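[worker-b] picked up task from shared queue
[worker-b] task type: protein-ligand structure
[worker-b] ligand name resolved to flavin-adenine dinucleotide; SMILES cross-checked against name lookup, match
[worker-b] sequence length check passed
[worker-b] input payload:
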Amino acid sequence: MSTARTIRTAPTTRTTGKALVIGGGIAGPVAALALHGAGIEAEVFEAYPTAAGGIGGTFMTAPNGLAALAAVGLEAEVAAIGQRIDRMVIEDAGNGVLGEFPEVSGRVMRRAELYAVLQRRLRREGIPVRYAKRLTGVEERTTGITARFADGTTADGDLVIGADGTRSAVRGLIDPAAPGPRYTGLIGIGGHSAHRLDGPRAAGESIHFAQGPRAFFGYWALRDGTGTAWFSNIPRPGQPTPEQVRAVSREDWLALVRERHAEDLPAREVLAAADEASVEVFPRLEIMPSVPHWYRDRMVLVGDSVHAPSNSSGQGVSLAAESAVELARCLAGQPDLASALAAYEGARRPVVEEVAARAAVVNGRKASAGV
Ligand SMILES: Cc1cc2nc3c(=O)[nH]c(=O)nc-3n(C[C@H](O)[C@H](O)[C@H](O)COP(=O)(O)OP(=O)(O)OC[C@H]3O[C@@H](n4cnc5c(N)ncnc54)[C@H](O)[C@@H]3O)c2cc1C
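[worker-b] inference finished, payload out:
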C-alpha cells in the first residue's frame, strides 16, 4: 500500500530494552517485527508446542491492515497470498442487490497463509520464537520483568507484550478484574463450493453478504476459477465448546447450513455444490468488551487480547496488525515507557472501540435472525 509508513528507523530515544512478546498468532509476530525494525529487541513465546501451520479459516484484511503489514516490510509477500477484493455487495437473500460499497475492500486470505508469511519473516530477521511456552505469571521489579511459563522456565526482559488472544493471561495479570470475551450468539461455518457464480460476481472482485431470514451468508468467487468460497453465521443461543463442535460430523454441520439457507439464493446453489471435506466450524465468534486497563507498569496488551471486534467488523486482523505497529512506534518515539504506553492507548482506543460498537450492532441483527 502506498500509504504505508516504514518504521525501519532507529529510535531517537529508548523507552524499553528487550520485549517479551506473549503469543505467536498474528499480533505477536507483527509486534516483534515492528519492534525489531525500530531497533528494539523482541522474543516471541507461544503456548502451543509447534507452529500453527494450516490452522484457521479465512479472513479479510482491510486496507488499514495491509498498510500495517507493509509497514513491517511485508507488502510484496502479502500481495502474493489470498485474493484482492474491490467492493462489498449487500444483497437480499433472493439475489437482488441492495447496495455496493467500494470503500470496503482489501484481501481475503487464509489465516494460515498470513501466519506462514509472518513466520518466514521472523526467521529471516533472526527473531526467536519459543514454542510450548504458556505464560502463567510474571515477577515485576523496578529494573525489569520476568515471565514465568507453565513448563517451569522463565525469561527476563523489560516489557511484557500480551498478544495472547481473547483468553489473554496478560490481561488478567494487568487487571484481575478485566472482562473476558463475550459470545456474539453466532457460530461461523465456512468452506469451499464447486459452484461457479455467473455475471459480474464471477470475476471474484466483490465479496457478497446476504442476511437471510434464518442465517447470514457471505460468499465470493475464487479467482483461480475453482468455485466459490462461502461462510454462514448461524444464531445459536448457547456457545458450543470446541469439543461439542468436534462431536458433530462435517456432514451434519453442512446439513444444518443447507437447512438454514434452504430458501436463500444464491446460498442454496452454492451450498448444494459445497465440498464437505472443506467445512470448518468456528464456535468462537466473540467480541471483547471495552478493557479498562490496556497496560500497567511493564505490561501492555495488543491485538485480540484487548480489542477483538468480532468477525462482523471485518477488522480483527487489521486492527491487531495496526495496533502492533503503533505500539512499536510509540515505544520508539516517546521519551519514556509510561509516556509510550499512554500514547499507544490514546491513539488506538478510540479507533478500536468505534469499530467494535458498529460490529456489535451488526451482530445483534444477525443473532436475532429467525429466533
Ligand atoms: C487458531 C486460530 C484460528 C483463527 N481463525 C480465524 C478465522 O478463520 N477467521 C478470523 O477472522 N479470525 C480467526 N482467528 C482470529 C484472528 O486470527 C485474530 O482475530 C487476529 O488475527 C488477531 O490476532 P491475535 O494475534 O491478537 O490473536 P490470536 O490470533 O488469537 O493469537 C493469540 C496467540 O496467543 C497464544 N497464546 C494464548 N495464550 C497464551 C499464553 N498464556 N502464553 C503464550 N501464548 C499464548 C495462542 O496460542 C495464539 O497463538 C483465529 C485465531 C486462532 C488462534
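[worker-b] attaching auto-annotations
[worker-b] Residues 22-28, 45-48, 52, 55-59, 111, 133-135, 163-165, 169, 282, 303-304, 308, 311, 316-317, 320 surround flavin-adenine dinucleotide (CB under 6 Å).
[worker-b] releasing lock
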